[in-house]
Amino acid sequence: MATIFTALQDVQARIDTACTAVGRNPAAVKLLAVSKTFPAADIQALYQFGQRAFGENYAQELANKCQILAEYNDIEWHFIGPLQSNKTRLVAENAAWVHTIERFKIAERLSAQRPTHLPPINICLQVNVSGETTKSGVAPEQVLALAEQVAKLPQLCLRGLMCIPESSHDSEILAQQFLVLVQLKAQLQARGYALDTLSMGMSNDLESAIAADSTLVRVGSAIFGQRHYSS
Asked: Keyword Cell inner membrane on this protein (predicted)?
């Protein structure tokens, strides 16, 4: 447990340093601990060290962990994986945030299946900023149309945008792709959408993302280590 705490401290220090380097307040950047494939015990450990926001990629795993950790009712669960129509109910019933909306059909199902006693799900639209055919996300030029549709759904709250840039160590390439998201957010805000979230930056590129104005970084391996995949 000391190891996972040290890793958490190291990531928080990276966030602080990255913010200081560009004159930002570290409190403006939320750390999302990406706990996919890791046991609930690891989440409990990080919870004891003050971490509250956790990200899951698989709907059934999210539902299972929510049940196991039900007593920790102030955990903020984020769904950050691709979402299929037949799994939306599990996410609608358990997640506070969904970062990966790229189709109106999925958003519509989430809204319809969200229990009415729960607050609306916070939504980020996933944008394909690199143009890679292997990447999920709506094309930048289609973001406005999707935002208009999603914003009208009663059980959702459109909060921001998310991206996964191409895997690169070139800070200029990363900066250019993150800038696409920054500019889209500004365009949507100019049209009256109250967006406050840019979900961008992971273990390998969080410094570049923070320099580009990310408000939420999704960090898994730098905290938890190598992933545990079951056969």
From this structure: no
Which residues does 108 contact at the CB level (< 8 Å), separation at least 6?
Answer: 153
Q: How many helices (H) and strands (E) does the chain have?
A: 9, 8
Tokens 């143009």 belong to residue = 131
Rounded to an integer, what distance in angstroms lies between the CA atom of residue 4 and that of residue 76? 19
pLDDT in tens, the chain (231 residues): 569 999 999 999 999 999 999 999 999 999 999 999 999 999 999 999 999 999 999 999 999 999 999 999 999 999 999 999 999 999 999 999 999 999 999 999 999 999 999 999 999 999 999 999 999 999 999 999 999 999 999 999 999 999 999 998 899 999 999 999 999 999 999 999 999 999 999 999 999 999 999 999 999 999 999 865 543
Q: CA separation (Å) from 68 to 39, 43, 72, 145? A: 10, 11, 9, 39
H or E element that contains 210: helix 206-211
> Which three-class secondary structure state does DSSP give residue 123?
strand
Q: Which domains does the chain have, with CATH numbers?
A: 2-224 (3.20.20.10)
Q: Is the backbone of residue 53 left (phi > 0), alpha (psi -120 to 50) or beta?
A: beta
